[in-house]
Amino acid sequence: MALFLKAAAGILLTVILLAQLRQKELSVLLSMAVCAMACCGALRLLEPVVELLEELEQLSGLNEPFLELLLKSAGIGLTAEVSASICADGGNGALAKVLRLLGTAAILCLSVPMLRTLMDFIQEMVGTS
To answer: Do 36 and 13 belong together in one domain?
Structure first.
């Protein structure tokens, strides 16, 4: 939690500093640098989650492709949301909505093999092939 609080404080200080800056180019560079640092902090915050998922994989005998699918889906969702927020803040709400739609479509596309496996499992249990 300390990492989150430090990052949030740094971002709020950056917002205050950006409000005072008159040079647009410098503001954009500073904003991009702080966003990159915040993304690195988010990755560090997610390390325990990845470790927990790996432990669950070992305990449950969950196939590695399913765990990989979960992580990819989460990554796509987070990337789409951050990208859409940047577009929206830049004044392009239409592109933001399209990015969210693309992220959802990509996650659904990734889910097809898992849904096929689930469908095969259900058919096997019911006894129809």
So the answer is: yes
Q: Give me the half-sphere count of Cα atoms (radius 13 Å) on the Cβ side of residue 99.
A: 18
Q: Find the domain containing 104 and state its range.
A: 63-129
- pLDDT digit string (tens) for 39-96? 888 888 888 988 887 887 788 776 777 778 888 898 899 899 988 988 888 788 899 9
52 and 94 co-located in one domain: no
Cα 13 to chain centroid distance, Å, stands at: 24
Kindly report the pTM of this predicted structure: 0.65
95 and 52 belong to one structural domain = no
Structure tokens at 100: 């969210």
